[in-house]
Amino acid sequence: MLLFKNSSYSIHRFQRLLSLYQKNNETPSISTSVKLNATLKKLLDSKQYKEALDLFDQKFEKCTDFTIDMAIKACTISKDYKRGFNIQKRLSSNSLNNPFIQVSLIHLYMGYGDIDSATRLFSSTANKSNYIYTAMFKG
């Protein structure tokens, strides 16, 4: 019985050591939305818009509304309007109702010169904030 306990304890310790080793030696990956947001922010701050948008497309399932907002802003700044419109098509209704995303979409539409779509989105917004009014009037 003692041999069995020692053997089982040794196996448990070995598994624990192995998992610690794997954890410390794994390649860095973007596993959470927090890490994704931080990585996107770094890329955007260094004006690497294409790389940020490529990463966004690869990890779309982990995106939060904050991530989506950053991606739409990157599309507007880099004048990649087609990509911005594709992002909009993939959004859930909850994300489309997010006021920050609505403001970013209005900026995207106005930058592209699509005043009709910007006006339509502005009109459909239930709770208009100062930010939405500013986005609509300033473009």
Automatic annotation (TrEMBL):
Gene3D superfamilies reported for this sequence: Tetratricopeptide repeat domain
Signal peptide: none
GO biological process assignments: RNA modification
GO molecular function, one term: RNA binding
PANTHER family, A to Z: PENTATRICOPEPTIDE REPEAT-CONTAINING PROTEIN (PTHR47926)
Protein name: Pentatricopeptide repeat-containing protein
